[in-house]
Write a structure and sequence with these properties.
The protein has 262 residues and is α/β, with parallel strands linked by helices. The protein has ten helices and seven strands. It folds into two domains: 5-150 and 221-257, Vaccinia Virus protein VP39 (Rossmann fold); 153-216, no CATH class. The protein has helices spanning 5-20, 28-37, 39-45, 62-68, 82-88, 126-135, 153-179, 182-197, 205-216, 226-236, and strands spanning 52-56, 74-79, 96-98, 111-117, 137-148, 239-246, 251-257.
Length: 262
């Protein structure tokens, strides 16, 4: 779909943001938690070696790394950020594509499993992005999509605490945040993540910094309800098989299936 000038500018700001702060929060313990306890982990475990999985907004390619531990299905990762893709190449995840989830460079119905984890809410049009995910899901295939939950705690953290942080960023800059707010965020992660994942985690400061900017200073962020998502699914001809709040109720996740033909 052709983008408006405003949408093009929003996409450019998002690309620049994640080129500067690539999302790579993929410690081994976190990967294992996603494989064991998340909807996408269950969907990956149910694939076979002949299946094609497309990871839209792949970042550091956590999906490909999870697949390598289980069924070894074929995976293709797509991301808007070239820096994120270069970082991902270190783990040799398989084919990577630089592209936009508002216009996916894949044929319709090509993928057995499509995964988009915490991505489409960073686009200028989350519904249009969802429709693109649905388009490339084959008949009988599965789509797992996670977005920020409109009724979760993070909505208020983004709106109020995030609003203050973004104003502070304009005043003291990123270097100021790195000596004031981000060390506090880093310390909080050392406490919160072991409680949330039930695993001990070593979190490097760079990881905390990039996660902080993903959570609070990203230039485009929207929030959505299960009702809104299931409405999109109906419009796309998908059946909802599961809905679940994940990531400490930050994300609303749906597992959807496109009915088989015949």
């Amino acid at each position: 779909m052709p983008l408006t000038g405003e949408a093009t500018e929003a996409r450019s700001r998002t690309r620049q943001h994640y080129d500067r702060y690539p999302f790579g929060f993929d410690q081994e313990e976190m990967l294992q938690e996603k494989l064991e306890r998340r909807v996408m982990g269950e969907a990956i475990r149910n694939t076979s070696a002949s299946d094609l999985i497309v990871d839209v907004g792949c970042g550091a390619c956590r999906v490909a790394r999870l697949v390598s531990r289980t069924t070894r299905a074929r995976t293709v990762g797509l991301d808007l950020s070239l820096t994120s893709l270069r970082e991902a190449q270190r783990s040799k995840p398989g084919p990577l594509v630089n592209g936009d989830n508002l216009c996916l460079p894949f044929r319709s119905g090509c993928a057995d499993l499509v995964i988009s984890n915490g991505v489409i809410h960073h686009t200028p049009d989350a519904r249009a992005s969802f429709m693109e995910l649905a388009r490339i899901t084959r008949p009988g295939g599965t789509l797992v999509v996670s977005v920020y939950d409109r009724h979760g705690w993070y909505y208020y953290a983004w709106r109020y605490l995030g609003g203050f942080i973004r104003a502070l960023q304009r005043w003291i800059g990123d270097s100021g945040l790195e000596v004031s707010v981000i060390p506090l965020f880093h310390a909080a992660l050392w406490i919160f993540l072991p409680l949330a994942t039930r695993r001990w985690l070593f979190v490097p400061f760079e990881t905390s910094r990039n996660l902080f900017h993903d959570q609070f200073t990203t230039p485009q962020c929207t929030f959505h309800s299960f009702e809104e998502l299931t409405g999109w699914a109906r419009d796309a001809g998908l059946a909802c098989e599961e809905q679940r709040k994940e990531a400490a109720h930050q994300l609303a996740t749906l597992r959807l299936r496109r009915p088989a033909v015949g």
